[in-house]
Amino acid sequence: MNKAELFKNAYIYLYSKGVYDKKKVASFVGLTIDAEAYKRITGDEYVEATETAN
């Protein structure tokens, strides 16, 4: 099992227990997981956050 699998499995567990929410899992996309892993964890497509104008 590689590091990406370990992180994904940890996030699946923490998300299923309510420790992490979708916003927290999304914060790991591009760092330790990819958008496909986000979908497998949360069941939703990953949508990259954009900045809003002030």
What does this molecule look like?
With 54 residues, the protein is an all-alpha fold. The chain has one domain (3-42). 50% of the residues lie in helices and 0% in strands. The chain has 3 helices and no strands. The protein has helices spanning 3-16, 22-26, 35-42. It is globular. The N and C termini lie far apart (45 Å). 17% of the residues are buried. The mean pLDDT is 91.
Number of domains: 1
The shape, in one word, is globular
Mean pLDDT across all amino acids = 91
Instruction: State the major sheet.
Output: none
Give the distance, in angstroms, between the N- and C-terminal Cα atoms: 45 Å
Helical content class: 40-55%
Number of strands: 0
Question: What is the topology?
Answer:
Elements lengths: L2 H14 L5 H5 L8 H8 L12
Top keywords for this entry?
single chain; 54 residues; mainly alpha; 3 helices
Structure summary:
The chain has 54 residues and is mainly alpha-helical. The chain has 3 helices and no strands. The protein has one domain (3-42).
